[in-house]
C-alpha cells in the first residue's frame, strides 16, 4: 500500500512543481497555493517508505495510508483539471473563440467561478492533508532519504599504491606489520602474515601502506602485488606473480597467457631463486588448503626471510594459508573517523566554516562503528553539500536500523545518491546480495540489459526501472520464478524495452505492476504473466490497442486499474466486468474510447470510477443522460468530465 502511496506522491509532487510555474497558475493566482501543497506533500512523502516497513506490525497505519492515497488522488484530479483548462485556454488563444461554448466558458463570470472552485478545492485538499499529517506523530514515523540506486558493485582490482595522506589512524597497525616483516621468521624460507578484519576496515589500504614503506622496499629484492578476490586459480595467480616479479626485477615482460603450469613454475623458480621477495595476496577468500599448498610450492625458491602478506575477512582463510602471525585489524577511533569524514566531505580547511555540520558529522561517525570505508563513502556522498538537511538525512536514515551480522557490509555502504556513475551492465555478482530487498536503477541511461543472475535475489521485493532509455532486455532465464518475494515492478520511460520477461506467472508475490511511457512495449504477447496483481497502471503505451488478455488471470485480486494517455486504446474487452475485486478504475486521456462493456453491474466492489479527458466516453457516461450511465449507476463515487 505504501509503495503505491509513495509512487502517487512522487507523481503529484512533480506535477505540482510543474503547474506552479505555468501561465494558468500564475494568471489565476494558484502558484502560491500549489507550492504550499507541494511542501506539505513532500513532508508527508518523506515518511512513507518508513511507514511501509511498519504497517504490518502497527495497528491503524494501513488506514492512515489509505486516507493519504485518497487525498493524493483527489489532488491529481484537481491538477488534471487545471492542465485541461490550461490547454483549452491555449487553443482559444491560437484559434480564436469561434465556438459559442468556448466563448461562454471564458466569459468573465465563468472564469471567476472556475477560479473560485479550484481555489476552494486546493484549499480543501491542503487542509485534509494537514489533518491527516498530524496523525503521523502517533506512529513515530521517521523521515528517510528517497530510495535511490542500491547496488553493491563488483569489487575492482586492487593495486599497490596509496598516498600517505590518504591513510588515517593506522600508524600502529603499520608498525606491527613492518616489525613482523623485518623478523626472519621460523617457517622455512617463506613465512606468511595474515591481516584479518571485516569488509571496509582498511585491510587493503594498510597492506598498500606497508608495501610502499621505504624500509620494506630496502629489505626485499622483489615486491609483488596480486589481487586475488574470489577466484583462487593457482595457474592464473602464478602467472600474475611471474609478471609482477619480472617488473619488480627490471626484466622484460614475456607473454604468459598460453604458458602451461610447468612453464610458469620453471619461470618463477628462475626469477625468484635466492631472492628475498615480498608478496601481497590481497582479498583472499580461498578455504581450500590444497590450492594454497599448490601455490606455495611454486614459491619455495626464494631466499630466507621472504614474506607473504595475505588480506582476508576470514580467520579460517588465515589458518588455511599458514600457521603464521595473524594481525586482527580493528575499527578506527571516533576522532580518526571524524577526521576521515571531514577530509572526504570538505575541501581542505573548509569544515571550519560549518561547525554545525561538523557536529552532525560526529553523530554520523558514531554509527559507522569505526569502519573507514563506511566513513569515506558517506563523506563522498556529502561532498559539496552544505545544507544541514542533507547531513541530517544521512544521520537519521532508517537503514541504520537494519539488522546485520558482525561481518556484514555496514548499512552505510548502501546509502547512495544519484551521483553514482551510470552502468552499462549490472555485474553478475549482484546475485551475491542475498538479502537485498529494494533495487532502484532509476535514470540510468546506459544500462542495456539485466543479467540473469538478478533472478538469484530471492529476497528482492521491489525492482524499479525508470528512465533506463537504453534498456532492451530483461532476464529471460526460467529462474525468474525464483524471485518469490518480488512485490512491485515499475517500468517507466524504458523506450527500447519491447517485452516483459517470460515466466512472470511464477511471481506469486507480485502485487503492483506499473508501466509508463514504454513506446515499443508490446503487452499482448503470450499469456505467461502475473496471476495475482493488486494494482496495475499503464501510461502512454502507443502500441496498446486493447487491454492484455492475461489481466483476467488477476480477476480475483486486482483492486486498482489505471489507464492513462493510451491514444490507440480503442475499446474495453468484454471480460472487464469479470474483474470481481476491482475497487477503483481510472481512465484518463484515452480519446478513442467511446463506451463501457455490458455487464459492468457485476463489478459490485467498484466504489470509485474516474473518467477524464476522454470526450466520447465522458459523453456516453454522463450522469443520468449518457447512453452508458445505467452501466455505472451503482458505483458510489463517479467523477466524469461532464459532471
Automatic annotation (TrEMBL):
This is Disease resistance protein RGA3. The keyword Nucleotide-binding applies. It comes from the Eukaryota. Residues 571-614 form the R13L1/DRL21-like LRR repeat region domain. One of its GO terms (molecular function) is ATP binding. Residues 172-347 form the NB-ARC domain. Keywords: ATP-binding, Leucine-rich repeat, Nucleotide-binding, Plant defense, Repeat. InterPro entries: Leu-rich_rpt, LRR_dom_sf, LRR_R13L1-DRL21, LRR_R13L4/SHOC2-like, NB-ARC, P-loop_NTPase, Rx_N. It comes from Fagus sylvatica (Beechnut). GO terms for biological process: defense response; response to other organism. Residues 10-97 form the Disease resistance N-terminal domain. Residues 429-523 form the Disease resistance R13L4/SHOC-2-like LRR domain.
